[in-house]
């Protein structure tokens, strides 16, 4: 089975780069957004079928892939609840999709973000737990 196309919203560039490379073979990050403004502009356009290179320069669409068949969106812990709601509203105005959002309560206050390995493990566990069929998830918000 081909990897599921996903969008990743993350603030920490080296975390985003790691996820783009290491969520494969199950998840292909086609678009990575590092700011809320980029997310609210680029994700809806992609969902409408407009494929262009991500402004972040990260994701397989930056490397020549042309996928717009997004199956899920992953949002890291660097975004406030208000910022996540802005992203979600912009996306859901176009299409209902599942969101996998970092559960910041799992990280002690002031500790900084978890390691890339821990983040990847949490993402994959959540994605696999919520999978309804081969590469299918119900729209909604899931924590990792």
Describe this protein's structure.
The chain is 34% helix and 19% strand. Strand 4 (98-101), helix 4 and strand 5 (140-143) form a beta-alpha-beta unit. With 144 residues, the protein is an alpha/beta fold. It has one domain (4-143): Rossmann fold (3-Layer(aba) Sandwich). The chain has a five-stranded parallel beta sheet, sandwiched between helices. The mean pLDDT is 94.
What's the helix-strand series? EHEHEHEHE
The geometry reads as: globular
Number of strands: 5
Largest sheet: 5 strands, parallel
Q: What is the CATH C level class, in words? A: Alpha Beta
Q: Radius of gyration in whole Å, from Cα? A: 14 Å
Integer average pLDDT: 94
The third-level CATH topology is Rossmann fold
Keywords:
single chain; 144 residues; alpha/beta; Rossmann fold; 5-stranded parallel β-sheet; 4 helices; globular
Set down the secondary structure blueprint:
Blueprint: E1 4-9, H1 13-22, E2 27-33, H2 36-47, E3 70-75, H3 81-92, E4 98-101, H4 116-130, E5 140-143
Parallel strand pairs: 1-2, 1-3, 3-4, 4-5
Task: Describe the structure concisely for a colleague.
It contains 4 helices and 5 strands; from the N terminus they run βαβαβαβαβ. The longest helix is centred in the last third of the chain and has 15 residues, at 116-130.
């Amino acid at each position: 089975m081909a990897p599921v196309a996903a969008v990743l919203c993350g603030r920490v560039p080296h975390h985003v780069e790691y996820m783009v490379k290491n969520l494969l073979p199950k998840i292909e990050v086609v678009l990575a957004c590092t700011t809320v403004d980029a997310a609210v502009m680029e994700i809806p356009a992609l969902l409408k079928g407009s494929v262009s290179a991500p402004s972040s320069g990260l994701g397989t669409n930056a490397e020549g892939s042309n996928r717009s068949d997004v199956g899920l969106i992953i949002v890291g812990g660097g975004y406030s609840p208000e910022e996540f709601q802005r992203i979600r509203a912009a996306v859901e105005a176009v299409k209902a999709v599942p969101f996998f959002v970092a559960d910041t309560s799992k990280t002690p206050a002031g500790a900084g973000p978890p390691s890339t390995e821990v983040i990847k493990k949490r993402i994959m566990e959540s994605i696999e737990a919520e999978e309804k069929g081969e590469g299918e998830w119900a729209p909604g918000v899931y924590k990792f």
